[in-house]
């Protein structure tokens, strides 16, 4: 039996193999570099020309760039879907006072129009008729006039909740808003959005996913009550509104996030009742000082290591640092100039909406956050 001979590559074949490897090493990085550059241009990122730029891989780069143009009209509704209806709540301790919205609140409303284009929008408020009229004609500031002047916006007057059915007085305005928002979604169906909950993409796929209600986790693993979706009289909102009157004790989240979490979790085993999304979907950040710094701090463009990836976020709940009196570098208020400067994660996330408003002549770079 003859010994087995070892095959040795000829010099020509070896040179050809080395040449192919060299080409692959040079061409592949150039392809991905060009691919990422084209993708980033849609965001108009100021650091795209930086010499020492750092790239963050996003899976959607391998698919296609997301649609960043505003919807021209509302697509047809589906019979068994959560309604294309947005709900906002603005409760006032003095109903006759000015209904003065800020730029950030107008930006939130226009984000819903830009990405989702709901057929109807409701502003639930206890403001008196005169206050609503002043807001519509601009006496309460530019941002109130813009929001209340939208053709799809309906102002729905509600009574200020005073006491829960268990007899406990409802003192905090935030708690009064909790009761109003759940009742609104229970009675009409649709999507509730806090005025600091900014859409980053179309949420219609969630509404048409086949569930009666949709919610998401927040920083402490409870469900976020600042943005949720449900059909009219869905089990979640029916049960939630009934029980919140029974369990309300004046504590911050007993009747809201905690109760919603218990009810929502119990409904998941029942087919089609409840979809619970992970934290990234509706509330990727939090309310701590580090969270607020990550979202709102202004930065130098040359080293974008601070850049956050919101590829899997539908709603960015931007908890304000003002509530806790946090001092954040380069931030005081959300103004057109702050957003259009593109120097923070928040600004980059909401930039397409602000730029659209600027192009439409709705805002000016020098407008104040109060619009007066």
TrEMBL record:
Domain of life of the organism encoding this protein: Eukaryota
Family: Belongs to the glycosyltransferase 32 family.
Pfam families: Gly_transf_sug
Keyword Membrane: yes
SUPFAM superfamilies reported in the protein's UniProt record: Nucleotide-diphospho-sugar transferases (SSF53448)
Xref: Gene3D superfamilies: 3.90.550.20
Segments crossing the lipid bilayer: 12-32
The protein's name: Glycosyl transferase
Keyword terms: Membrane, Transmembrane, Transmembrane helix
Biological processes per GO annotation: carbohydrate derivative metabolic process
Source organism (scientific name): Ophiocordyceps unilateralis
Record's keyword annotation contains Glycosyltransferase: no
């Amino acid at each position: 039996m003859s010994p087995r001979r070892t095959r040795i590559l000829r010099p020509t074949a070896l040179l050809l193999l080395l040449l192919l490897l060299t080409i692959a090493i040079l061409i592949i990085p150039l392809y991905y570099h060009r691919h990422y550059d084209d993708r980033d241009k849609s965001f108009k990122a100021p650091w795209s020309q930086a010499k020492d730029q750092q790239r963050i891989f996003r899976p959607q780069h391998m698919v296609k760039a997301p649609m960043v143009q505003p919807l021209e009209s509302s697509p047809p509704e589906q019979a068994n879907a959560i309604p294309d209806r947005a709900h906002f709540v603005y409760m006032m301790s003095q109903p006759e006072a000015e209904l003065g919205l800020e730029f950030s609140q107008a930006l939130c409303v226009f984000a819903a129009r830009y990405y989702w284009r709901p057929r109807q929008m409701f502003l639930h408020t206890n403001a008196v008729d005169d206050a609503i009229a002043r807001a519509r004609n601009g006496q309460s500031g530019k941002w109130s006039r813009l929001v209340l002047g939208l053709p799809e916006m309906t102002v729905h007057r509600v009574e200020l909740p005073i006491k829960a059915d268990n007899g406990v007085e409802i003192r905090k305005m935030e708690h009064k808003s909790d009761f109003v928002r759940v009742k609104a979604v229970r009675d009409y169906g649709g999507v509730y959005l806090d005025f600091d909950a900014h859409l980053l993409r179309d949420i219609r796929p969630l509404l048409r996913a086949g569930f009666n209600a949709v919610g998401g986790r927040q920083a402490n693993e409870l469900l976020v009550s600042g943005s949720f979706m449900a059909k009219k009289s869905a089990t979640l909102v029916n049960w939630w509104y009934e029980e919140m009157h029974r369990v309300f004790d004046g504590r911050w989240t007993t009747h809201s996030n905690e109760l919603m979490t218990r009810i929502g979790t119990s409904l998941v085993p029942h087919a089609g009742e409840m979809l619970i999304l992970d934290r990234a979907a509706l509330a990727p950040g939090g309310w701590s000082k580090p969270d607020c710094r990550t979202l709102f701090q202004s930065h130098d463009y040359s080293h974008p290591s601070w850049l956050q990836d919101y590829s899997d976020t539908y709603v960015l709940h931007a908890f304000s640092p003002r509530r806790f009196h946090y001092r954040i570098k380069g931030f005081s208020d959300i103004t057109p100039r702050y957003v259009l400067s593109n120097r923070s994660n928040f600004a980059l996330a909401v930039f397409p909406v602000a730029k659209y408003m600027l192009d439409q002549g709705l805002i000016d770079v020098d407008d104040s956050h109060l619009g007066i």
